[in-house]
Write a sequence for this structure.
């Protein structure tokens, strides 16, 4: 199974500043999908952004963008102009392009983001 | 649309008791999943289903059984609960759209069910 590694258990950022969350993964596949999910204290899992491996252009969603480095198997999330509402646990996830595991997501262990005023 | 609904939201069990978690989705999704979330472990796949009447094992299936008798429901059962099964359980669903899977298979999650086994 593919391994997803988030090496930062906790991160902190000041309001209005920029923070980058790291994610690396291990795979032998050439086609796959990568995701960042946010889990606030409510426990609800919220999709933040996704990236198709066959696309070279980095995905962006408003203040959220990714730095996808396919050769390095790296998929970092950049949050610009951080807001108090961004405080949450962030999970990086991998999805294979084949159906062997029912297209299930394989998650990293998460990074807890604290946003300070 | 309610999306993905999990019941119950909270439950306390004694070791050896049995229970069933119900996941219901109203989006006509083909694929459904059960994950468990433990501190410092992320979400781990327990079982999944690719359609009505089908189930398959995920990463951590031991001690759990599942059934998908109706397309909209995915049940997770614990026959003899153990303290190691204390966790937060998440159900999710997604759909498969022909050969264009760029838009498909974005998982929609339920709100989670916290289970404590004493």
């Amino acid at each position: 199974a593919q391994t997803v590694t988030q090496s930062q258990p906790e991160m902190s950022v000041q309001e209005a500043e920029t923070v980058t969350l790291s994610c690396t993964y291990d795979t032998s596949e050439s086609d796959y999908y990568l995701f960042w999910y946010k889990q606030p204290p409510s426990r609800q899992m919220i999709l933040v952004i996704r990236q198709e491996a066959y696309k070279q252009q980095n995905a962006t969603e408003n203040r959220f963008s990714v730095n996808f480095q396919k050769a390095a198997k790296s998929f970092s999330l950049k949050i610009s102009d951080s807001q108090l509402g961004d405080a949450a646990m962030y999970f990086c996830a991998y999805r294979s392009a084949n159906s062997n595991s029912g297209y299930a997501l394989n998650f990293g262990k998460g990074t807890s983001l604290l946003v300070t005023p | 649309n309610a999306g993905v609904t999990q019941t119950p939201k909270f439950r306390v069990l004694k070791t050896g008791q049995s229970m069933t978690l119900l996941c219901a989705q109203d989006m006509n999704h083909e694929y459904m999943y059960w994950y468990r979330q433990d501190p410092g472990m992320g979400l781990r796949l327990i079982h999944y289903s690719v359609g009505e009447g089908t189930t398959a094992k995920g990463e951590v299936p031991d001690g759990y059984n599942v059934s998908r008798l109706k397309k909209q429901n995915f049940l997770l059962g614990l026959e003899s609960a153990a303290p190691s099964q204390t966790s937060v359980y998440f159900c999710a669903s997604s759909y498969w759209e022909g050969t264009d899977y760029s838009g498909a298979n974005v998982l929609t999650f339920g709100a989670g069910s916290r289970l404590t086994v004493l």
